[in-house]
Write a structure and sequence with these properties.
This protein has about 260 residues and is mostly helical. The protein is built from nine helices and no strands.
């Protein structure tokens, strides 16, 4: 069977490209060779391991100059870096692989056996549900963080609520994906789940503060105050959410107050 295919029009947009190596309309490369395992490896290396590609550039610059990546995207820069939703999708893939690899190990670390049978069953159920819907939970976290962030920076007009959403699509995705890669070996090396959490969440807070400081170009003192406000607003929102859930459960009959 021949390894060459006759291509007369672009498979992406339909433009005639019989005498071209690249589509003059959308710029896609003309592929005439049948796909092989070697092609797949080569394409993977070109897309993800090439130092000049957008993924590596986005990953590095979100550490070294996050304001260029995020502010650039907000103001129309689209080709130099991976777009916000694309970067979020990469992180969801990484965390999904992590969950698959460490789920049983984390159950072992959390020692459900220390609880009563009913408590252990409930904790295990919560754990399984959290892992099952972690992608949805991660996505819901972003608008929540964006709302809190916008409230904290209400006296600054530089970014609106939607632009704060973009900030966290990049920043939250980046730090969660990075910490997931770091924590993967740690999960199998330590027997204390609290240690894993103690490593994880301070890093999240520090990185988010760092990104916002760079974006708003504010002093260390101001970002510390803003971080404190973030926790205060977050705490208030958490209390409101708990009360709302409690009331809804009472209305639905899921829980009943004890009577004398």
């Amino acid at each position: 069977m021949s390894n060459l295919m006759i291509i007369s029009n672009c498979k992406n947009c339909g433009q005639q490209i019989e005498n071209h190596n690249f589509c003059p309309d959308c710029g896609a490369k003309k592929i005439t060779k049948r796909i092989t395992f070697k092609n797949l490896i080569s394409e993977f290396v070109d897309r993800f391991l090439n130092l000049d590609n957008s993924f590596i550039k986005t990953f590095i610059h979100l550490f070294t100059k996050p304001e260029e990546v995020i502010d650039g995207y907000i103001h129309g820069l689209r080709k130099r870096y991976v777009n916000a939703f694309g970067y979020f999708a990469i992180t969801i893939t990484i965390t999904g692989i992590y969950a698959f690899l460490v789920k049983d190990r984390l159950k072992e670390i959390m020692s459900f056996g220390d609880f009563s049978e009913q408590q252990a069953e409930m904790q295990s159920s919560i754990f399984d549900t959290t892992f099952q819907y972690q992608s949805i939970i991660s996505f819901l976290m972003i608008p929540l963080l964006a709302l809190l962030s916008r409230l904290v920076f209400l006296n600054y007009k530089k970014y609106n609520l939607t632009e704060h959403f973009v900030i966290y699509l990049y920043a939250y995705s980046h730090i969660v994906g990075t910490m997931t890669l770091i924590l993967l070996p740690l999960t199998f090396m330590v027997d204390n789940f609290m240690f894993v959490g103690m490593v994880q969440f301070p890093v999240y807070i520090f990185y988010m503060a760092y990104v916002l400081k760079r974006l708003y170009q504010i002093s260390l003192k101001k970002i510390l105050i803003k971080t404190l406000l973030f926790f205060i607003y977050g705490g208030i929102l958490y209390i409101i959410a708990v009360i709302a859930v409690f009331v809804l459960m009472m209305i639905s009959g899921a829980i009943e107050l004890p009577t004398k």
